[in-house]
Amino acid sequence: MASPDPGSKDEQLSDDHFRSLVEQAFDGIVICDEKGVVSDWNAGMEKITGIKKDGARGRPLHELVAQISPTRESIDALKRLLQKCLQTSGTTCPRRTIELVLRRKDIGKGVWAELTLFPLRTRQGQRIGCFVRDVSECRRREELDHALDMINK
């Protein structure tokens, strides 16, 4: 399938569809440039982190996570993964998921989150995408199942 001509109406529709998809996603979606600086931050990220889009754009992703992550190991894991992606210009970014705890600054609520980085090719060049999913409910169920197993033993 051929790509739309740069600047064409089809290309604009493609961009509009992509932006619509990103904005409507329940999961958090972040797009970073080749330096790890946030260029897009959707409503899902606002809900998970409590950080508004305007407060995220133009800032390094690892700094934003450092603001809301209570553990040094979570920040370091993200920095290592992000650095690996940035060293290869995102082309061989390992599609690896890390789990970390985030603490929303606005309500002080802790959230377990799965964060997956992936390479993303755009007309502006190579970018790094990031899916973030709130897995707090799954973690609570796992802990409950484990507690029930311990009681039943």
How does this model look, in words?
Strands 2-1-5-4-3 form a 5-stranded antiparallel β-sheet, with helices on both faces. It has 6 helices and 5 strands; from the N terminus they run H-E-E-H-H-H-H-E-E-E-H. The protein starts with 8 loop residues before the first helix and ends with a helix. It has 153 residues and is α+β, with helices and mostly antiparallel strands. The mean pLDDT is 81.
Structural class: alpha+beta
Q: What percentage of the residues does DSSP assign to strands (E)? A: 25-35%
Question: What's the oligomerization state?
Answer: single chain
What is the strand arrangement across the widest sheet? 2-1-5-4-3
Low-confidence stretches: none
**End-to-end gap:** 58 Å
| Overall form | globular
Task: Look at the structure and give the mean pLDDT.
Answer: 81
Bin the helical content.
Answer: 40-55%
What is this structure's SSE topology?
Elements: H1 9-24, E1 28-32, E2 38-41, H2 43-49, H3 53-56, H4 61-68, H5 72-87, E3 97-103, E4 110-122, E5 125-134, H6 136-152
Antiparallel strand pairs: 1-2, 1-5, 3-4, 4-5
